[in-house]
Automatic annotation (TrEMBL):
Ranges annotated as spanning the membrane: none
Protein name as it appears in the record: FAS1 domain-containing protein
InterPro entries: Adhesion/Biosynth-related, FAS1_dom_sf, FAS1_domain
Domain FAS1, residue spans: 1-137, 141-300
Pfam families reported for this sequence: Fasciclin
Lineage: Eukaryota, Fungi, Dikarya, Ascomycota, Pezizomycotina
Organism: Hypocrea virens (strain Gv29-8 / FGSC 10586) (Gliocladium virens)
Length: 331
């Protein structure tokens, strides 16, 4: 079994020792009633932890161990065509759904959650597969915390949160998962200097800025490229993601009755995501404790009343009058 293999290996002694302290995890990795994929950190991965580090709680360690276990069999060839993988760690803030690992393939090979690299693949076990990784996988933090870690990409958005006291607002919203469309600094630049001066430097504009921030969050529905956790009262019926060439989602936002539309197109195992027909997701599936981050290259705005989409990709930005008319009903 997976458990027996990691217990005998001289490369995974530290992870195996932690597993031994958690009988339920031992049972899972020994169980033959279902197949699993373990991403096991090699002993060298534990060298990053400082000696004087305060020991985390038993519950935290157990959750972290479960986060290394994907539900189902994921040989390397299947990971190449996966965007996210469901783990054995069920996240309460996603409505009790499995927290996911983000997988990506680049010149350096397969990486999980941007930082942990697969260094040995496809070790077969009776109840699944083992891949060795070079960094410990930690369950992800909150959406807001992740955004603050990248000020070089998201400083304009962070300023928008500050100017509108958005953090105070969002803390009062009860969410079971969320999809957060996160505009880069360049996405705000695209609005143009007039619109930005209005939004950031006038009292009136800040109300519109707050409306945009609300519009960029889908509550209680967590949409990954290859999975959809729908915790809303009125669920949207969709087929399993793998089967389809493309999907269309029409999702409610935190901005009144304004909906945001998402199209996922698939071709030869690759997928691209567009929001409202013009904003491209440039970094998909940033997994977070309370949802998923989809980084976009244009600020998503509600379409004009009576128009489903706004296809404008013009460089000159948006007129303040146009911006105000799109958001008039919500401010």
């Amino acid at each position: 079994t997976i458990y027996e293999l990691i217990s005998k290996s001289k490369f995974t002694t530290k992870f195996a020792k932690l597993v031994d302290d958690h009988p339920s995890v031992v049972d899972l990795l020994n169980s033959t009633s279902a197949n699993y994929t373990l991403f096991v950190p090699v002993d060298k991965a534990f060298e990053d932890i400082p000696d004087d580090h305060k020991k985390p709680s038993k519950e935290f360690i157990e959750n972290a161990l479960l986060y290394h276990i994907a539900k189902g069999e994921y040989p390397a060839r299947k990971i190449l065509h996966s965007y996210t993988l469901p783990t054995a760690y069920d996240e309460e803030l996603l409505g009790g759904e499995p927290q996911r690992l983000r997988s990506s393939v680049g010149l350096g090979g397969v990486k999980l959650n941007f930082y942990s690299k697969v260094i040995a693949a496809d070790i077969a076990a009776k109840n699944g597969i083992i891949h060795a990784v070079n960094h410990i996988l930690v369950p992800p933090p909150y959406v807001g915390r992740i955004i603050t870690l990248f000020p070089d990409r998201f400083s304009t958005l962070l300023l928008a949160y500050e100017k509108t006291e958005f953090v105070k607002f969002i803390h009062g919203v009860n969410l079971k998962g969320s999809t957060v469309f996160v505009p880069t600094n360049e996405a705000f630049n695209w609005l143009g200097p007039k619109a930005n001066a209005f939004l950031f430097n006038t009292d009136k504009g800040r109300k519109y800025l707050k409306a945009i921030l609300k519009y960029n969050i889908v509550p209680n529905a967590t949409l990954y490229t290859d999975a959809f956790y729908d915790e809303r009262d009125t669920k949207q019926q969709t087929e399993p993601a793998e089967e389809l060439k493309s999907e269309h989602y029409d999702l409610p936002t935190l901005l009144g009755d304004a909906h945001i539309s998402v199209d996922i197109a698939r071709i030869f195992g690759f997928a691209s995501i567009k929001v409202n027909g013009y904003s491209r997701v440039v970094v998909p599936n940033g997994v977070a404790k309370n949802g998923v981050i989809q980084v976009v290259n244009r600020v998503p705005l509600p379409p004009h009343k009576g128009h489903r989409h706004h296809h404008s990709d013009n460089v000159g930005g948006i007129e303040v009058k146009d911006l105000m008319s799109r958001l008039a009903d919500y401010v």
